[in-house]
Write the structure tokens for this entry.
Amino acid sequence: MSITAIILTYNESIHIERAIRSIQAFTDQICVVDSGSTDGTTDIAKRLGAEIHTHAFVNQARQFQWALDTLDIRGEWVLRLDADEIIDPDLAREITEKLPQLPSDVVGVNLKRKHIFMDRWVRHGGRYPLVMLRLWRHGQGRIEDRWMDEHMVVWGGRTVTFDGGFADHNLNDLSYFTTKHNQYATREAIEVLNQRLGLFARDDALNARSASFQASSKRWVKERLYNRIPFTVSATLYFLWRYVFQLGFLDGRSGLVYHFLQGYWYRFLVGAKVMELERAVAHLRDKAAICAELTRLTGHKLVAQSEPLTTSDVNESQLAPRL
């Protein structure tokens, strides 16, 4: 079975060689889609045999979908890999051995991701395994069109899960980590506001059949329950759930840093940004005007649906999924 890997990059010179070398043994084509790196990322990738493509970045979902729609993908299967991720040797062997044996009704493969923080594996707090669809038959998968928490989804068959090692191991420092999560928080706040106000179409293709049960159930809990609770309460309860009841305290001192920043500070920041943005647009009722103001405040270009807000929009945001 031939495999094409797609990696999105922007100034990933400290990661890209490690990522490419982790997949060279079992992939037939490696496509790097870069959004203007200035640190030699593309030179490293090209030296290692990757095909280099350049495209202006809007968000992760649209960048990756552009790659799926535009590139000459020659593989029968497609692998999505972030530049700071690694496929461990045992998973590489599992893919090589099991992929050709899969029946034709299997269209996607979920992988079990582990998170490495401060060079230590975060084993507890509900952070392992994170089951994500990352390998699928070419032509039977796409990425959700969302500003944050986008997932790969498939159609036309079922998914299976492989057990080998797959790690998210970013080598940057805490300043990078907090800056990145600050940017994530802005994008997630946009998604929460859209859920509440129905500003533009929401892509809700994720479910247990199109990806993994874990990913779809987490989305359901977050959007149907968590986002309806005041963030001052929900962020605190979430951190306690992860750190105490899901045994996050067993991850040691570096684990405390991770669970506090990612499981409390980040969730609290998302809620605070939602509150800030809601106040900024509270006097507006026209969706286009709201999106224009949110574009000005966040720097992300948002395009509204044409009709004005109604009472039902404010109270209920279940729009039809984009298919």
Q: What stands out?
A: Residues 307-323 have pLDDT under 50 and may be disordered. The radius of gyration is 20 Å.
